[in-house]
Amino acid sequence: MGQKVHPTGFRCAITEPWRSRWYASSKDFPALLLQDQKIRRHIRDNWAFAAIPKIEIERAGDVVTVFIHTARPGVLIGKKGAKVDKFREEIEKITGGPVRLKIIEVHRPELESRLVGESVAEMLAKRMNYRRVLKKAVDQAMAAGAQGVKIVVSGRLGGAEMARVGKISKGRVPCTTLRAKLDYGYIVARTKAGAIGVKVWIFKGEYGPGEVTHGLLPVERTAPERASV
Description:
By secondary structure, the chain is α/β, with parallel strands linked by helices. It has helices at residues 7-11, 29-46, 73-77, 82-95, 113-125, 130-143; strands spanning 20-21, 54-60, 63-70, 99-105, 148-155, 164-171, 180-191, 194-206. It is built from six helices and eight strands. Strand 7 (180-191) and strand 8 form a beta hairpin. Mean pLDDT is 87; it is low at 224-229.
């Protein structure tokens, strides 16, 4: 049996921060968790053109702070912030309280697994050759500075009658190394032949000894081994 663990969930609170950061009692927890899912779904459905790889949510009292990482901040903000104001009002209808938006620009979209997956899914929907699409996506990520890339697509590739799996990898992708900076994304491509799943792993290097990570714990320095006499 295959034992597969989500790479981001595997590193949460160790080298990766939680995507939702708040505390609630057992009574309020289900409603707030469902609210977070509605916020993320609303952003994904209505603002997909803004190239958003990651959404983080924080709560302090009644105020909800939404951190939106985007490769196209100008498209998301709009002229004089008109789109952001409308966007905030839409989310406030979901939360029923005040909302603060923080737009964070992504400088290297080629190194964001979700954006790479969306690009692959878009080209697969246009019925392009999947081998050529995967090779192009991997080459672009490696040229942008990635140390390793792996992409797996599964479904009716090329409109074939029987579903199959296509894989491509380049470099090193250490999924079980906790100190590895591993970005993972999953996208579903909607094609005329059916749904095609796209999984992307991008390895960006490792945290060094004593380096502070984006999670809660610094990477510990290993003690040198003593030579035996």
